[in-house]
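RECORD TYPE: inverse folding
INPUT: structure tokens
STRUCTURE:
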């Protein structure tokens, strides 16, 4: 498991390493925010703002 902190609610989010794919989206279980995987190595995440769409 990979643990990181949601950029939105700062809650702990756990994901499988296989789910961390550059350019893919993860979802925060706590607040439902969509989090973009900016980079796999080193791992970088970015909150996807709804305004971006
Ligand atoms: Zn969150």
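DESIGNED SEQUENCE:
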């Amino acid at each position: 498991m990979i643990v990181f902190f949601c950029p939105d609610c700062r809650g702990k989010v756990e994901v499988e390493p296989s789910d961390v794919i550059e350019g893919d989206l993860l979802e925060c279980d706590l607040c439902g925010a969509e989090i973009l995987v900016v980079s796999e190595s080193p791992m970088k995440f970015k909150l996807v703002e709804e305004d971006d769409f």
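NOTES: The mean pLDDT is 91.
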